[in-house]
Amino acid sequence: MAELRISAGVPIVVRFESELDPAGTQLQEQGSSPFESLDVSGRLLLLHPSSSAWLWPRMHLQVRRMDGTSLTLVLVPGPPALADVQVDVFLHPFSPGALRAALEKVSAEHETLKLRYARSEMELARYREDEFNPDVALAVLLLDDEASSHLLKGKPLKVENSDVHALVWFIRLAGRSAYVFLVTNRHRTQDWTLLRGEILHGETREPLPVIARARPSILPPGATGRAVLVTRTPPSSRGDFYSIALRGPDGPEWQLCYSGVQL
Questions:
Q1: Which distant-in-sequence residues (6+ apart) come within 8 Å of 124 by Cβ?
Q2: What's the Rg (C-alpha) of the chain?
Q3: Are 19 and 28 in contact (CB under 8 A)?
Q4: 114 Cβ partners below 8 Å, 6+ apart?
Q5: 120: which residues sit within 8 A by CB, 6+ positions away?
Q6: DSSP of 127-177, one letter per residue?
Q7: Which ranges of the sequence are coiled-coil (predicted)?
Q8: Which of 1, 31, 239, 255 is the residue whose CA sits 20 to 30 A from 104?
Q9: CA 125, CA 104: separation in Å to the nearest integer?
Q10: Region of residue 42 (left: phi > 0; alpha: psi -120 to 50; beta: else)
């Protein structure tokens, strides 16, 4: 017998492949019912458990179809998170409805696999492009603690907001300008993730091509990691000012930004 998970105050819609007989659809146990209402409408069985449904033991619900055949559902009380909300009942695995549902499930799984494959192909293409990219090589080098200890000089700049704190170093090397952030996630519950980095011209707001890398990729609350932005130093950058920003996935509250810097 199939189980139907019910929870206090959580309505359930049970759909069948053929019409139901309201007179023959009832609880097998005698006495009070755990439902505020139990209605039959065509092929639908509508259940509304009462606020005390979680106190009831397992019960048996007999459902009769208009052709005279019956089946029994076992009602299993439980927490709201595990309650059934919409249920399709198929009496045979090869019925048209069951086959349609199985096909929809396989199609959804197929689309998920296609999406994962496309993402993997994009990642592979990016790794191949990065293999001989000097900007990426510099970013990876600056993410290393030992290498950074030899390359980063001077007193870092402090940048912070209510959720994130960072020490920032600037370095010029081999025609590149790089910013190294030592980031600390001060949020109590949420992780911090680098979504993208930006270097914008102070007047035109035109963005420069930037390589952004972080290690680790996800900072849990209280953790510290590195983020690096690398761009090729523009030939005409002398005297120009830029804005630098690290942006997380959830908007300004995850943003580290300061303006008026030179490359």
A1: none
A2: 30
A3: no
A4: none
A5: none
A6: HHHHTT-HHHHHHHHHHSHHHHHHH--SPPEEEE-SSEEEEEEEEEETTEE
A7: 103-130
A8: 1
A9: 32
A10: left
Q: How many CB atoms lie within 10 A of CB 257?
A: 14
H or E stretch including 261?
strand 256-261
Tell me the backbone φ, ψ of residue 6, rounded to 5 degrees: -115, 155
36: alpha, beta or left? (left if phi > 0; alpha if psi -120 to 50): alpha
- Structure confidence at residue 44 (pLDDT): 92
Q: Are 205 and 199 in contact (CB under 8 A)?
A: no
pLDDT at 258: 60
End-to-end CA distance of the chain: 72
How many other C-beta atoms are found inside a 10 Å radius of the C-beta of residue 3? 11
In this predicted model, what pLDDT tens digit does every residue of 166-210 receive, in sequence order? Answer: 898 988 888 888 999 999 988 888 888 888 888 888 888 888 999
Give dist(CA 130, CA 153) in Å, integer.
Answer: 27
Peptide bond into 249 cis (omega under 30): no
